[in-house]
């Protein structure tokens, strides 16, 4: 097996030093600086002041990255069919397993499913192995759930998947439109940049277009709380309105575009009147006109859009409707003006560069004969497939049907994240060969794997990622590989060699792969050849030292333009055959699955402020778990009342495809008839909290992206015998319960529980059994059988080890004070008497529900400071206790507390 050249990593780790790398989470792509104090065995993390994506800022998730570096939850050794193994055995098991199936059933009987968490170098070799040497295009990724609609729309309009603008435009814009993007929570550092831009220039207008009144509305001048799925109609209406008002840039249209007349006709057909569009969108004509006039009157307009637009059965059309408005006004690729899609994942764009989708090949080439010819000659392969492979939903359907018999899943958890997720689970359970490479030991998907391959974690990975503004940044390792973990590119290359393709996968360092990737991007890429946007010719001879020092840079980066490119297309130059952009006529379409009397609510899914995807890393940080510790259902109070759902109770969300349990949260943030459920909880952390099981599997016909923002559901109170919680200093082997959520805290573990059948006494006995190995524990007990109430606490040397409270309803005591008692290293003394009341005595420290995750400041602390010091503004609160002074994502909540 080949060794990995770790010279640079070893050198970095040899001494106390400062290492620049990139955040592991969202598509903002913030630069991070790690200071290593070797003598103290200590690392400190801060935002990289020099990184153009964040200039030193980090959000709550990025700031907590070093809190997630433990090895306890890591997969540290290969496992083959349930047995701990070594790399030679595991590699040959994967290679032989794949080859056996390919020989018997052909290359399309195998598939790879990757992730926006993979580095570009990992992605490159995975794609090369599947499309170049196995000979199938079945290499898709979870970016299909994230950015596929934008990618398709870019290609239709520009000829290539090119983001025309950059983050600097946020500082120069006169109007910023957030469309289906709760950036305050999902791209917090960019949101803070917008907030700052508005502070510096109060004339800057912000419009939020979202069916929910999200935290992003905090800085909005106008919020269009549109009907879910109506954005296509809205942007068609905008184009027609701009034409009516004479606000088009005919010079730009004439010189640099084609297809305008047909597109305008089709937009006008969707725009009989302002009233009609307003009605279709479910908003007032005044609000609609205000937005249209802002767009018409401001030359510098940036449209930021994300999953609210992409995750739709007409997502590609919706993105094109947005792009049509920018093309028609010539507001594209100019300072302060243009469309800017926000990628969800850290390397969603890097994956698109190397062909990490089944519908593209590599280096922004497709499956046309001239494209496959270029890549085939470059790779020295005659096996390039002639057409696209299976996309995410199709791929797992093919697994379910037995057509795909082996699947290799890398750095992702489709049993949690794909729509109709119970079907995916059943498909993998029945699949002949499931290979999973991941850095964690357990996930819903890993639990179904035949072969488990330990992959390097964020702090151990070396390579590159590309953020939402085409900026390539280095991710640099600052920790040695844990256990037997290996970089994904190494694992894939070793499998490729074992399958007989050694000469094509002879890499010993990620720079070898990056250099090849850069050469492919430049190969025959010129006028008269196959001209394309993605070009890294400046790096085609990059040395290991240059790669080590590589500073963040925006592609294209060519020998003629080695500093990179901030913006494209202000003067045309699109990558279509005639170099003109194409207007795409759009007819707005409703979502595929509509509400009906059985499923009267629209389920919308999304992210929350402090968690990332399946929480496999952010869930390890205690402070990130406090803001929203349980899966929940946001529902309008009037809908909740009419459905009999009280605030804080448990409810079941059910669709045609599946069901889940979560806690009810009354909020005016949702439109009537809509509910919102976060995406983050897995089957490992909860007994029944996977919202993916409920989401419909319908996809956009062009991008194949699922419609995760619109599933018809019903919501009903979930009757249970009792509800309760357990807080324990030790992690417990919890009994099997109908409702269970595991929450990791600073020095303890909390479990929210409920059951329909088992009695409280049965569960109490099982819980005590978890702890009865320790004979020195003394117990306190409070019981009221008439009220189905039981409270117990376990002590050792007067220190609280364990507390559990059960009762018939959900109105249990708050958990914060009890959690603080469990964390105490000293005896709890006088508090012992009041403990089982669940209420702190007067004067006891109780910070309340967490508001600021960055500095872990609770609501009661903030309220007390407001009262004691007469604080008047969020800035005052920040000065008094630091809350809201780092990422700023909690500032709207602080303002809310001040108002109340
Ligand atoms: Fe990471 Fe937050 Fe920056 Fe996103 S905004 S890259 S999660 S620090």
Question: What descriptive keywords fit this protein?
Answer:
6-stranded mixed β-barrel; 900 residues; alpha/beta; binds iron/sulfur cluster
Describe this structure in words.
- By secondary structure, the chain is α/β, with parallel strands linked by helices.
- Helices cover 31% and strands 18% of the residues.
- It is built from 30 helices and 34 strands.
- The protein is globular, with a radius of gyration of 27 Å.
- It binds iron/sulfur cluster.
- Iron/sulfur cluster binds next to helix 2 and helix 8.
Share of β-strand residues? 15-25%
Instruction: Note poorly predicted spans.
Output: none
- Percent helix: 25-40%
Going by helix content, strand content and strand pairing, the class is alpha/beta
The ligands found in this model are: iron/sulfur cluster
- Mind telling me the C-alpha Rg? 27 Å
Largest sheet, order of strands side by side? Answer: 5-4-16-15-14-6-7
**What is the count of DSSP helices, taking H or I runs of 4+ residues?**
30
Tell me the distance between the termini.
64 Å
Largest sheet entry = 7 strands, mixed
Shape: globular
The average pLDDT score comes to 94
Number of strands: 34
Record the SSE blueprint:
Blueprint: H1 7-13, E1 18-22, E2 31-37, E3 42-47, H2 60-63, E4 79-80, E5 83-84, H3 87-105, E6 110-114, H4 120-134, E7 139-141, H5 148-158, H6 168-172, E8 175-179, H7 183-186, H8 188-200, E9 205-209, E10 222-224, H9 231-244, H10 250-256, E11 257-258, H11 260-269, H12 274-281, H13 285-297, E12 301-305, H14 307-310, H15 315-328, E13 338-341, H16 348-354, H17 369-379, H18 392-400, E14 406-410, H19 414-417, H20 421-430, E15 433-438, E16 451-454, E17 463-466, E18 471-475, H21 488-501, H22 510-522, H23 544-549, E19 553-554, E20 581-582, E21 601-606, E22 632-635, H24 637-643, E23 650-654, E24 659-666, E25 674-678, E26 711-717, E27 722-728, E28 739-744, E29 749-755, H25 760-771, E30 778-784, E31 789-796, E32 799-807, H26 816-823, H27 831-834, E33 850-852, E34 857-858, H28 859-869, H29 874-881, H30 891-899
Parallel strand pairs: 6-7, 6-14, 8-9, 8-12, 9-10, 11-20, 12-13, 14-15, 15-16, 21-25, 22-24
Antiparallel strand pairs: 1-2, 2-3, 4-5, 4-16, 17-18, 18-19, 21-26, 22-25, 23-24, 23-26, 27-29, 27-32, 28-29, 30-31, 31-32, 33-34
Helix pairs in contact: 3-21, 4-16, 4-21, 4-22, 5-15, 9-11, 9-12, 9-15, 12-13, 18-20
